[in-house]
Amino acid sequence: MSILIRAAKLEDIPVILEINNYEILQTTVNYDIVPKTLEEQENWIHQKENAGFPILVAEINGRVEGFAFYGTFRPKYGYRFTVEHSVYIGPDSRGKGLGRKLMEQLIGIAKEAGYHSMVGGIDSSNLGSLEFHRKLGFREVGRFKEIGHKFDKWLDLIFVQLLLEESN
Protein backbone atom coordinates (compact mmCIF):
# COMPACT_ATOMS: atom_id res chain seq x y z
CA MET A 1 0.00 0.00 0.00
CA SER A 2 1.48 3.31 -1.13
CA ILE A 3 0.35 6.39 0.85
CA LEU A 4 0.97 9.88 -0.46
CA ILE A 5 0.12 13.12 1.37
CA ARG A 6 -0.04 16.16 -0.88
CA ALA A 7 -1.78 19.48 -1.41
CA ALA A 8 -5.31 19.20 -2.75
CA LYS A 9 -5.94 20.03 -6.41
CA LEU A 10 -9.13 21.10 -8.13
CA GLU A 11 -9.52 17.63 -9.62
CA ASP A 12 -9.72 16.22 -6.05
CA ILE A 13 -12.91 18.13 -5.29
CA PRO A 14 -15.36 15.39 -6.39
CA VAL A 15 -13.77 12.86 -4.02
CA ILE A 16 -13.52 15.43 -1.20
CA LEU A 17 -17.21 16.14 -1.80
CA GLU A 18 -18.04 12.43 -1.67
CA ILE A 19 -16.23 11.96 1.66
CA ASN A 20 -17.71 15.15 3.11
CA ASN A 21 -21.26 14.28 2.06
CA TYR A 22 -20.95 10.78 3.49
CA GLU A 23 -20.18 12.31 6.89
CA ILE A 24 -23.00 14.83 6.56
CA LEU A 25 -25.59 12.21 5.65
CA GLN A 26 -24.45 9.26 7.78
CA THR A 27 -22.67 10.50 10.92
CA THR A 28 -22.40 13.18 13.58
CA VAL A 29 -18.75 13.83 12.66
CA ASN A 30 -20.02 16.85 10.71
CA TYR A 31 -23.01 18.76 12.12
CA ASP A 32 -24.20 19.89 8.67
CA ILE A 33 -27.42 18.19 7.58
CA VAL A 34 -27.69 19.19 3.92
CA PRO A 35 -25.22 17.63 1.47
CA LYS A 36 -22.85 20.03 -0.25
CA THR A 37 -23.00 20.63 -3.98
CA LEU A 38 -19.99 20.47 -6.25
CA GLU A 39 -20.17 24.26 -6.62
CA GLU A 40 -20.18 24.76 -2.84
CA GLN A 41 -17.17 22.46 -2.43
CA GLU A 42 -15.34 24.29 -5.23
CA ASN A 43 -16.08 27.64 -3.55
CA TRP A 44 -14.82 26.22 -0.24
CA ILE A 45 -11.47 25.16 -1.71
CA HIS A 46 -11.04 28.55 -3.41
CA GLN A 47 -11.80 30.36 -0.13
CA LYS A 48 -9.20 28.29 1.72
CA GLU A 49 -6.62 28.85 -1.01
CA ASN A 50 -7.31 32.61 -1.16
CA ALA A 51 -6.88 32.85 2.63
CA GLY A 52 -3.58 30.94 2.43
CA PHE A 53 -4.87 27.90 4.34
CA PRO A 54 -3.74 24.38 3.40
CA ILE A 55 -5.93 21.52 2.27
CA LEU A 56 -4.12 18.20 2.20
CA VAL A 57 -5.27 14.93 0.70
CA ALA A 58 -4.17 11.38 1.40
CA GLU A 59 -3.88 9.00 -1.52
CA ILE A 60 -3.68 5.23 -1.41
CA ASN A 61 -2.39 3.83 -4.68
CA GLY A 62 -3.36 7.01 -6.53
CA ARG A 63 -6.89 7.41 -5.13
CA VAL A 64 -7.81 10.16 -2.65
CA GLU A 65 -9.11 8.52 0.53
CA GLY A 66 -9.04 11.41 2.99
CA PHE A 67 -8.38 15.09 3.51
CA ALA A 68 -7.45 17.55 6.24
CA PHE A 69 -7.34 21.30 6.50
CA TYR A 70 -7.29 24.20 8.88
CA GLY A 71 -8.69 27.69 8.86
CA THR A 72 -9.64 30.64 10.99
CA PHE A 73 -10.70 29.71 14.52
CA ARG A 74 -12.55 32.96 15.12
CA PRO A 75 -12.33 36.14 13.04
CA LYS A 76 -11.28 38.54 15.80
CA TYR A 77 -7.69 39.81 15.66
CA GLY A 78 -6.72 38.37 19.05
CA TYR A 79 -7.27 34.83 17.73
CA ARG A 80 -4.89 35.24 14.79
CA PHE A 81 -2.38 32.69 16.15
CA THR A 82 -4.97 29.91 16.51
CA VAL A 83 -6.39 27.72 13.75
CA GLU A 84 -9.19 25.16 13.78
CA HIS A 85 -8.65 21.93 11.90
CA SER A 86 -10.69 19.05 10.52
CA VAL A 87 -9.66 15.66 9.20
CA TYR A 88 -11.87 13.27 7.23
CA ILE A 89 -11.07 9.74 6.10
CA GLY A 90 -13.30 7.77 3.75
CA PRO A 91 -15.24 5.00 5.51
CA ASP A 92 -13.34 2.20 3.75
CA SER A 93 -9.89 3.62 4.52
CA ARG A 94 -10.00 4.18 8.26
CA GLY A 95 -7.39 2.55 10.47
CA LYS A 96 -4.67 2.62 7.80
CA GLY A 97 -2.70 5.53 9.22
CA LEU A 98 -3.95 8.17 6.80
CA GLY A 99 -5.32 10.44 9.51
CA ARG A 100 -2.04 10.44 11.41
CA LYS A 101 -0.01 11.19 8.29
CA LEU A 102 -2.37 14.00 7.30
CA MET A 103 -2.36 15.53 10.77
CA GLU A 104 1.40 15.30 11.25
CA GLN A 105 1.92 17.19 8.01
CA LEU A 106 -0.86 19.69 8.79
CA ILE A 107 0.60 20.37 12.25
CA GLY A 108 4.02 20.91 10.66
CA ILE A 109 2.57 23.41 8.18
CA ALA A 110 0.82 25.28 11.01
CA LYS A 111 4.06 25.47 13.00
CA GLU A 112 6.00 26.75 9.99
CA ALA A 113 3.30 29.37 9.41
CA GLY A 114 3.83 30.66 12.95
CA TYR A 115 0.60 29.51 14.56
CA HIS A 116 0.64 28.94 18.30
CA SER A 117 -2.45 26.79 18.84
CA MET A 118 -4.57 24.30 16.89
CA VAL A 119 -8.06 23.38 18.02
CA GLY A 120 -10.71 20.96 16.86
CA GLY A 121 -14.32 20.22 17.68
CA ILE A 122 -15.26 16.54 18.09
CA ASP A 123 -18.70 15.04 18.66
CA SER A 124 -18.66 13.42 22.09
CA SER A 125 -19.79 10.07 20.66
CA ASN A 126 -16.73 9.93 18.38
CA LEU A 127 -14.45 8.15 20.83
CA GLY A 128 -12.09 7.05 18.06
CA SER A 129 -11.39 10.65 17.08
CA LEU A 130 -10.87 11.66 20.69
CA GLU A 131 -8.29 8.89 21.16
CA PHE A 132 -6.68 9.71 17.80
CA HIS A 133 -6.22 13.34 18.82
CA ARG A 134 -4.95 12.37 22.27
CA LYS A 135 -2.21 10.28 20.66
CA LEU A 136 -1.19 13.33 18.61
CA GLY A 137 -0.81 15.38 21.80
CA PHE A 138 -4.15 17.20 21.78
CA ARG A 139 -5.85 17.72 25.13
CA GLU A 140 -9.51 18.13 25.91
CA VAL A 141 -10.12 21.75 26.88
CA GLY A 142 -13.90 22.10 26.87
CA ARG A 143 -17.27 20.39 26.56
CA PHE A 144 -20.45 21.94 25.27
CA LYS A 145 -23.59 20.08 26.27
CA GLU A 146 -26.40 19.79 23.72
CA ILE A 147 -24.86 22.39 21.42
CA GLY A 148 -25.77 20.59 18.20
CA HIS A 149 -28.88 18.84 16.92
CA LYS A 150 -28.90 16.17 14.23
CA PHE A 151 -30.78 12.92 13.58
CA ASP A 152 -33.45 14.04 16.08
CA LYS A 153 -31.06 14.13 19.02
CA TRP A 154 -28.98 16.66 20.93
CA LEU A 155 -25.23 16.44 20.46
CA ASP A 156 -22.39 17.31 22.82
CA LEU A 157 -19.23 18.84 21.37
CA ILE A 158 -15.74 18.45 22.81
CA PHE A 159 -13.00 20.93 22.02
CA VAL A 160 -9.42 19.68 21.87
CA GLN A 161 -6.27 21.78 21.62
CA LEU A 162 -2.64 21.34 20.72
CA LEU A 163 -0.13 24.04 21.62
CA LEU A 164 2.24 24.23 18.68
CA GLU A 165 4.93 26.08 20.60
CA GLU A 166 5.71 26.54 24.24
CA SER A 167 4.57 29.78 25.88
CA ASN A 168 7.23 32.11 27.20
From TrEMBL:
Coiled coil: none
N-acetyltransferase domain ranges (all copies): 3-158
InterPro entries in UniProt: Acyl_CoA_acyltransferase, GNAT_dom
Domain of life the protein comes from: Bacteria
GO molecular function annotations of the record: acyltransferase activity, transferring groups other than amino-acyl groups
CDD domains reported in the protein's UniProt record: NAT_SF
Signal peptide range: none
PROSITE patterns, sorted: GNAT
Alphabetically ordered keywords of this record: Acyltransferase, Transferase
Keyword Transmembrane helix: no
Protein name, as recorded: Phosphinothricin acetyltransferase
Species for this entry: Algoriphagus hitonicola
Upper classification of the organism: Bacteria, Pseudomonadati, Bacteroidota, Cytophagia, Cytophagales
